[in-house]
Amino acid sequence: MKTLAFILVVVLLPAVLVLTNVQFIMSPAYVRWQYGRADFPPAPTIKAAERLPVALASVDFVRGSLSVEEFANLKVNGQTAYNAREVQHMVDVQRVTRGAFLAWGVAVALVIASLVVLRGRRAARALLYGSLLTIVLLAVLGIFAAISFDQFFTLFHGIFFEGDTWIFNDTDTLIQLFPIPFWFDAALIIVGLAIVEALVIGGLAWWTLRRSPQRGARAYAR
After folding, report:
1. What is the rounded CA–CA span in Å between residue 100 and residue 160?
2. What does the pLDDT look like over 125-159, one tens digit per residue?
3. Which residues, other chains included, contact 75 with Cβ-Cβ below 8 Å and sequence gap of 6+?
4. How far apart are CA 17 and CA 195, in angstroms?
5. How far apart are CA 187 and CA 59, in angstroms?
6. What's the pLDDT score for residue 219?
7. DSSP assignments along the chain, one per residue
8. Which of 193, 198, 191, 177 shows the shortest CA–CA distance to 146?
9. Which pLDDT band, with edges at 50, 70 and 90, does 214 fall under?
């Protein structure tokens, strides 16, 4: 049981940290922050006054706060904002998002339960190894995304979406509302925050191990 708990903490910690940060990215706060940046790309065919409200409503739909009918009826420039292909893609995005958030909840529960089983030094060691695994995996992923974001973006979508259903023209509403720099920043923030969080957790775990000697060593000292 303790071996299984140890493995679960190590393996699931990267997923917990990454998906925690994904929830921040999939939020109105992140959209507002992006739109408030001076260098955020403009939308050629969408009025500035309509762009942010439609983007926020789109995030609400992905998070389940808006129905498909309400989403499909969003307007820009007096016309339907999204075409049928875009609507279907966003339905797929909502499905993937729900699955990711469900996986996050299960992973968090398993990590907490495993830490309760392990306790003490075993728990600290599991968190240390899980943090190291997170840092290594995300460092490699972050370098890949920074060097070749287009390839990373294509690979990511190829995992979760069928064929070319996620590819759109520059004039489509989805691209004008959420341009590539929006997702480039999102990837860097998710990876960067997860690495920082892993460093903090790993540092605390290492400090705990240093302050808490093994039972055998303590008994020998006596």
Report:
1. 11
2. 999 999 999 999 999 988 888 888 888 888 888 88
3. 50, 54, 81
4. 9
5. 17
6. 41
7. -HHHHHHHHHHHHHHHHHHHHHHHHTSHHHHHHHHTSTTPPP-TTS-HHHHHHHHHHHHHHHTTSS-HHHHHT-EETTEESS-HHHHHHHHHHHHHHHHHHHHHHHHHHHHHHHHHHH-HHHHHHHHHHHHHHHHHHHHHHHHHHHH-HHHHHHHHHHHHS-TTTT---TTSHHHHHS-HHHHHHHHHHHHHHHHHHHHHHHHHHHHHHHHS--HHHHHHH-
8. 191
9. low
What tokens were used for 34? Answer: 């992006």
Side-chain-side CA neighbours of residue 75 (13 Å): 3
First to last CA, the chain: 31
> Across residues 109-126, what is the average pLDDT?
94
Q: Which residues of 66-79 are buried (b: 16+ CB within 10 A; e: fewer)?
A: beeeebbebebeee
Alpha-carbon torsion angle 175, 180, 186, 191, nearest 10: 140
pTM of the entire structure? Answer: 0.86
